[in-house]
Specification:
The protein has 123 residues and is of the alpha+beta class. The protein has a domain at 27-110: 7,8-Dihydro-6-hydroxymethylpterin-pyrophosphokinase HPPK (Alpha-Beta Plaits). 26% of the residues lie in helices and 8% in strands. It contains three helices and four strands; from the N terminus they run αββαββα. It has helices spanning 27-41, 82-91, 104-110; strands at 66-68, 71-73, 96-97, 102-103. The strands form two sheets. It has a two-stranded antiparallel sheet with strand order 1-2. Strand 1 (66-68) and strand 2 (71-73) form a beta hairpin. Helix 2 (82-91) runs antiparallel to helix 3. The radius of gyration is 15 Å and the shape is globular. The protein starts with 26 loop residues before the first helix and ends in a 13-residue tail after the last helix.
Length: 123
């Protein structure tokens, strides 16, 4: 799996987490809610892959695959980002990626991203 070389990596550290949410909303309605939350928190567009106050992504929606102009699920770059795969692996290592035919754990094992990821735990 080839790394997306367009990604901007020379920026400040950031916090990242993965959460599992159960919802009756369809993906487009979820994306609308996410945009409202990000706007409320103060997200402002900078440049692609640039720093931002908050960035909420839908990584999976069950086993569904959606590829439309404004939404791609599973997330298009999930397999390239250790900072996403590591916390995701903590909560759902067996989640199956229908495009790559691999679990989150397997994607993490194959990931070529060498970015440093520090883990913080509450003690």
């Amino acid at each position: 799996m080839k790394q997306n070389l367009g990604e901007k990596k020379d920026q400040d550290d950031f916090l990242n987490q993965a959460v599992e949410v159960e919802s009756k909303l369809k993906p487009k309605a979820i994306m609308k809610q996410i945009a409202e939350i990000e706007g409320f928190i103060g997200r402002e567009e900078t440049f692609k892959w640039g720093p931002r106050e908050i960035d909420i992504d839908v990584l999976f929606y069950g086993e569904e695959m959606i590829s439309e102009m404004d939404i791609t699920i599973p997330h298009a770059f999930i397999h390239e980002r250790r900072f996403t795969l590591i916390p995701l692996n903590d909560i759902c290592p067996d989640q199956y990626h229908p495009i790559f035919g691999a679990t989150v754990k397997e994607l993490l094992d194959m990931c070529e991203d060498e970015s440093e990821v520090k883990l913080y735990t509450k003690e």
